[in-house]
Amino acid sequence: MTPHVQHDSNRRGVLVIHPGALGDVLLARPVLHALQRQFSQHEIALLAGNAVGTLLRDAGEIDRVFPLESTYLSELFAGHDSLCAPFKRWLSRCDKAVGWFRDADAALVRTLRAAGVQSINLRSSSSQECFAEHQSDRYLESVEIADAGRACNLPLILSPAVMAEAQQILRSLNWDSRSPLVVIHPGSGSPHKCVEAWRLAEVIQWFIEVGMTPMLLEGPADREPCARVLSALRTPVPVIRGLNLSKSAAVLAQAALYLGHDSGVTHLAAALAVPTVACFGPTNPRRWAPLGPTVSVVSGEPCACSTWSDVASCQARVCLQIAPERMIAACRAQLDKQP
């Protein structure tokens, strides 16, 4: 069932449609920033996952969320007559729509035009008509926005209320804020993107030895990788678990350093301007690495797998054979850059 959509007749709208996962949506933030500047009097709405949409709305980067988990996207594909009345009214005052996916038979474009949207730019960022290398630049290129770039990738700003909640969560895990907090995310969207647990365990042991407070961040799909790291540790460390995305972001924002893989959480840490060390493989960091001056990427040997089937059957995993000493060096370099 589609939730009620409040109607504000005083503002025109801009709709951004992004059905991707957390990291993909965060890489599209420069587009949101460009649209905010170009349409400063408009209401910017995002049709995306509710968790990331709520995060971006609360950070002031969009004005409204149309949750992907609801029926909005299916209504758009089904046709104008299938739109719920509040969504139809909102689209009637929408001046522009952009998005990243294949609309092969132009069904969605027809619905938007019938609803009254004048400017529509929907295209897959994987289109052969896109030539930019980094995914963030491809998002900009595919919707033909030229006045933005990586310099517009401003840090996410979280509310004082959720930051205070995060501090309470960390205090409950015996962090007193006197020692620097390090958050380690052992998981990823795919187990084929994760380094071996013993490698992370060696780095975590170094954090402990130099007087830092390492904690693991466990999301809903991270139980197994967290358990493997815990079993490889000589000294147990706390595990942060059971948080929604906004509270996870607020916990990350308290950290002096973040260590993770090619994952949405890593992109979130980078978006918060937390000093970030990202272990990449087999995905190409030139295409998918998080952006920002606080990000360092470490990888093993170049990946020779040409498809994800090859990745799944690969035993060597040379791209993820990253020596703990290299991770420690990257972490040390990030820490040395901080005041």
Short description, anyone?
With 339 residues, the chain is of the alpha/beta class. It has helices at 22-27, 29-38, 50-58, 72-78, 85-92, 107-115, 135-142, 160-172, 197-209, 223-232, 245-253, 264-271, 285-288, 308-313, 324-337; strands spanning 13-17, 43-48, 64-67, 94-99, 119-122, 181-184, 213-218, 239-241, 257-261, 276-280, 295-299.
Describe what you observe in this structure.
With 339 residues, the chain is an alpha/beta fold. It has two domains: 13-152, Glycogen Phosphorylase B (Rossmann fold, 3-Layer(aba) Sandwich), CATH 3.40.50; 160-337, Glycogen Phosphorylase B (Rossmann fold, 3-Layer(aba) Sandwich). 40% of the residues lie in helices and 16% in strands. It contains 15 helices and eleven strands. It has helices spanning 22-27, 29-38, 50-58, 72-78, 85-92, 107-115, 135-142, 160-172, 197-209, 223-232, 245-253, 264-271, 285-288, 308-313, 324-337; strands at 13-17, 43-48, 64-67, 94-99, 119-122, 181-184, 213-218, 239-241, 257-261, 276-280, 295-299. The strands form two sheets. It has a six-stranded parallel β-sheet with strand order 8-7-6-9-10-11, sandwiched between helices. Strands 3-2-1-4-5 form a five-stranded parallel β-sheet, with helices on both faces. α8 (160-172) packs across α11 (245-253) and α9 packs across α15. The relative contact order is 0.12.
